[in-house]
Design brief:
It is a single chain. The protein has two domains: about 90 residues, no CATH class; about 70 residues, no CATH class. Helix content is about 70%, strand content about 0%. Helix 2 packs antiparallel against helix 5 and helix 9 runs parallel beside helix 11. The radius of gyration is 20 Å and the shape is elongated.
Length: about 170
């Protein structure tokens, strides 16, 4: 475990203190999961390493919550930890706000590149909605500026990358 912790820390994983925008909690989990994948960690190692990166208010929360999440004799499973963690730091109400932000999002005055990048960021809060490639392409096309949108409609493109490149 000592060697794993050393390798993990060399990847410079983020710490989490429980403060700030709820989206930070989601990003923290994503960044840790990338490190876990590189290191080929087990479920239990994922939890141990994640807990090592928690500090401040989040550490206090975990100390009081750990026994409920993983009662004595229970295996530490990453998905269970993430569910409890997100329940606290990225609750359903925050997820609904991010989904609503995705639903309202339009290109506005942004460049196509900025629009595409922001849409990609918001898409992670609407995974069921962007799962279908055709829907994802239409969503991108239909939220473009009106003058660009009308040109894309006339081209009758159905592929996301092709619509993006043409826009």
């Amino acid at each position: 475990m000592h060697q794993l912790v050393e390798q993990f820390l060399k990847l410079k994983p983020p710490k989490f203190d429980g403060k700030g925008d709820p989206e930070i909690a989601s990003l923290w989990v994503e960044e840790l999961e990338k490190a876990f994948e590189v290191l080929e960690c087990t479920e239990e190692e994922n939890v141990t390493l994640a807990v090592y990166q928690i500090q401040g208010n989040a550490n206090d929360w975990w100390k009081t919550t750990r026994g409920r999440v993983f009662p004595a004799g229970t295996a530490q499973i990453w998905i269970v930890f993430v569910e409890a963690f997100k329940g606290k730091y990225f609750p359903e109400s925050a997820r609904e706000r991010k989904l609503a932000e995705f639903m309202r999002f339009h290109q506005g005055q942004m460049t196509v590149d900025l629009y595409e990048a922001e849409l990609a960021r918001l898409s992670k809060f609407a995974p069921k909605m962007v799962k279908d490639p055709l829907y994802r392409a239409r969503r991108f096309r239909d939220r473009l500026k009106p003058d660009v949108h009308s040109k894309m409609i006339s081209l009758n493109l159905r592929d996301y990358n092709e619509i993006y490149e043409r826009a």
